[in-house]
Amino acid sequence: MVKIICFGDSLTFGYQVSREDKWHVIATTKTGISLVNRGVSGDTTVGMLKRIQKQVFDAKPDGMILMAGYNDIFFNRSWEQAAKNLAAMVDQSRAKGIQVFVAIPPPIHLPVTFKEGGELVDFEKAAVMIADYCQWLRDYTTSSQLFTLDFSAAGDWCDNDLYLDGIHQSPAGHRLMADQVIDFLEKTVIAK
């Protein structure tokens, strides 16, 4: 069975969504490809660089869906360092012969309605930086000849029902993401 590590933060982990409703579980069930969740809520690309050896390389997957960067923007107020760290993870993975699929996360949906900690982040400024970061991801994946899984293009992310809080996807948002992953995997992995 093909094994792909899903490596990222809370958008990968499936923050506050039951296991059976998470995008990677739905896609595993529909495709037969083992999508192993290695998302950690609140993680940054710095934290991911520290855990990539143990959670990805040591697992010897056939591929990795890499999605990260929003927490760097929220807490460090910069996307450039996230971009540098993501490129480092891609280079390390390629050096180990792991097929990398870079995922562009869904956009945040303003207004963000965080109950705790939301006052520490200027989400309107973050949304502008996220747009810049996502454009960098598109340019980077094109120039680096990487497969891109663009969740932001999955549908109309203006629908409130797709979010729990403006950042994290609801079960409906996870279904939308799963549909895109299934289509992506059928074209890139299963078609091989």
UniProtKB/TrEMBL annotation:
Q: Which domain of life is it from?
A: Bacteria
Pfam families in the record: Lipase_GDSL_2 (PF13472)
In what residue span(s) does the SGNH hydrolase-type esterase domain sit? 6-176
Name of this chain's protein: GDSL-type esterase/lipase family protein
> Could you tell me which species this protein originates from?
Acetobacterium wieringae
